[in-house]
Amino acid sequence: MKPLIVFFCLTLATAGVLFGCGKVRQEKKIYQIGIVNFNHQVEGVIAGFKQGMEKKGYIEGVSVRYNYPGPLDTLEQGEQLIGELVAGKVDLIYTITTPATRLASKLTAGTEIPIVFGPMMSPLDSGLVTDLFSPDNTITGVRVRGSVEKSLYYLKEIKPDLKNIYVPFHVGNSPARVCMHDLRKAARKFGVQILSENVHDKEEVVRALGRIPAEAEAIWLSHSHLLVSLVAEFVKAGNRLKIPIASPVNQLSDGVLVNYASTSSTIGRQVSRLADKLLRGAKPASLPIETAEFFLGINLKVADFLGLEVPQYLVNQADSIIR
User: Which of 41, 53, 299, 303 has its CA 20 to 30 A from that of 252?
Assistant: First the structure.
């Protein structure tokens, strides 16, 4: 009888463990994250975000599901997507750039769905937050403002006699406006004159780059989806006039001489750190808005083409170099 009783007890215990494990497996949470993006050029940010999440244990299809239909083209598409995310009570919404964040903030009002953004130029200037260190709503994230002055500084180090820089200004674009504000401030500090021309669309940008003033000694590529999408036109103009292009945007491989900028994958991973904290229960108000990491890039091939000598100390400091 004793062996039979022991066997019976062991069987019940095993069944209990299996039942308990099964219950744990059934209750294991699969996080739902919605991604709202209007920019076709930032897929690298999303890839970096997913890589960062995976390193923290969020395995796609196992412990996290992403609702991301791809880049959106209209606000109406954004409204529909965010409406579906709210109705589905997702755990988190990840927004990319200011328009997506502003729309998500509006449409999630009254809910407790946290929003994490990145990149965004300046959440303060966009009116989305009133305090970078203690956001007073459901939003936190990563901003990319802060690299303009150093970008101009590095250009001056490579071209010390620089006096005039040509800047197509994307009127009406919030990131471009903030970038121009910072550039004017930096230009006064370094004794550089800004030669700007207002542009609204692709055709105006192309025309502007075709009539750059003769006194321009460099071209500036600002934060703006429109301008960045036309980097090939900037490079064509720079090559034609044999003047350098500088930028606080990561476009080095496209023919820009020097930039001091964040990278797509780095921003994505930085956002993932905040997302992890939010999913673990942290409130956005307890997570200060972060500034993206910036990296110095120098294109020595462009410098050679333009007959410019890059100081060795800058080469030593550079995070990326094209030779």
Answer: 53
Cβ neighbourhood burial of 132 (10 Å; 0-12, 13-18, 19+): middle
Note the pLDDT tens digit of each residue in 64-82. Answer: 999 999 999 999 999 999 9
Residues 162 and 205 in one domain: yes
Domain total for the chain? 2
- Let me know if residue 17 belongs to a domain: no
Q: Are residues 222 and 312 in the same domain?
A: yes
Are 114 and 138 in the same domain? yes
Backbone φ, ψ for residue 246 (5° rounding): -125, 155
d(CA 78, CA 58): 25
Give the model's pLDDT for residue 17. Answer: 43
**Are the CB atoms for 131 and 140 separated by under 8 Å?**
no
Q: Please check whether residues 172 and 157 belong to one and the same domain.
A: yes
| Cα distances (Å, whole numbers) of residue 261 to 57, 119, 170, 175 | 29, 12, 19, 14
Model confidence, pTM:
0.84
CATH of the domain at 185: 3.40.50.2300
Per the domain annotation, does 273 fall within a domain? yes
Could you tell me the two tokens for 237? 């103009």
Check whether the bond before 119 is cis (ω within 30° of 0).
yes
**How big is the CA angle at 65 (ends 115 and 76), to the nearest 5 degrees?**
55
Those residues whose C-beta lies under 8 Å from the C-beta of residue 45, and which sit 6 or more positions away, are 96, 118, 119, 264, 265, 267, 268, 271
Confidence of residue 25 (pLDDT cuts 50, 70, 90): very low
Residue type, 196: S
Instruction: State which residues form the domain around 189.
Output: 148-261+295-322
